[in-house]
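Hi all, long-time lurker, first post. I run a small reading group and we've been trying to get comfortable going from sequence to structure in the token notation. Rather than ask abstract questions, I figured I'd post a concrete chain and ask someone more experienced to write out its structure so we can walk through it together at our next meeting. Sequence below, copied exactly:
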Amino acid sequence: MDLLNTLVDKGLRRETPTRAEALAVLATSDDDLLDVVAAAGRVRRHWFGRRVKLNYLVNLKSGLCPEDCSYCSQRLGSRADILKYTWLKPDQASRAAAAGLSGGAKRVCLVASGRGPTDRDVDRVSDTIKAIKDQNEGVEVCACLGLLSDGQAERLREAGADAYNHNLNTSEATYGDITTTHTYADRVDTVRKAHAAGLSACSGLIAGMGERDEDLVDVVFSLRELDPDSVPVNFLIPMEGTPLAKEWHLTPQRCLRILAMVRFVCPDAEVRIAGGREVHLRTMQPLALHLANSIFLGDYLTSEGQAGRADLEMIADAGFEVEGTGEVTLPEHRAGGGCGSHEGAGTCGTATADSRGGAPEEPRTDLVAVRRRGAGTDLAPNA
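-- Answer (accepted) --
Happy to help. Here is the structure in token form:
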């Protein structure tokens, strides 16, 4: 297929595909799916070999968020029956992180619900970062605390944070349909603040919220322009009690096409399969490893993931290897900045029909399990 040959050539040279090419990936048929995976897999292996980076989430503060993000079980007005608790103490968070690190994770992602941190919250998280790093040599720590005020990114960097996550989630055109308590521009501003402070920027998207192919391409091209080192791809977990509980638009094939498109647009960025992979990719998860070079180990913020041991077995059975603490995730040329900083790289990023790739199956609500273990509970975590 000429399209795939072109995209592989561009990916190996770090060149940006056109919007039409990105849309064409999403519009490919199921008959061509393995060809799409194989082509994007060549790009993935060129930049990251067969390594899979493991990341582990610690939910520092769960529920009772004043923001109204429609996809989130912690949102204002959520009726989801999730765990709710205030800030974990540094030693509690460090113990939670240790479970993931012992399972092979090399990055700990510290997440807290809320619009954004107060200065006191930054102090609290700084103490947590120090506690984790004092006890785990070589660990990477990423903070995800919402919208940042001036100077907060610098303080987190001084405290030892390596990265900051703040996802764009969807296209600017549709953002107002998903969230009204803050703007798309607010999110872009926070990613830029993190980057300017010397933190590795981590920013991604959520697929499956009823968006069009054009919206997916728009947000991925916007991410390329923002230059994140890491791009998490979440697949909506339609939690009961949230406005998007009935949004079941994804098939495993659709998810693979989305991951392939992200890989082609951001060929040398760390593409991470994030929330929802178990729900929507299901038995096709191993194929997704040919597209993404990073996953979360164990559970998510408010929902359960598959067993950590199953994640490790899946990686080994698919012929991949867990990335070690001493290995550098990103290609050498990205050391001075993200993919948009390369010489001649350009910026990253028209089907007229909605190309979701076949009718979705019946909603698999049986696969959505609320997290009842780990951080905020007395039960052992899944790691």
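A couple of things your group might point at:
The radius of gyration is 19 Å.
Residues 338-358 have pLDDT under 50 and may be disordered.
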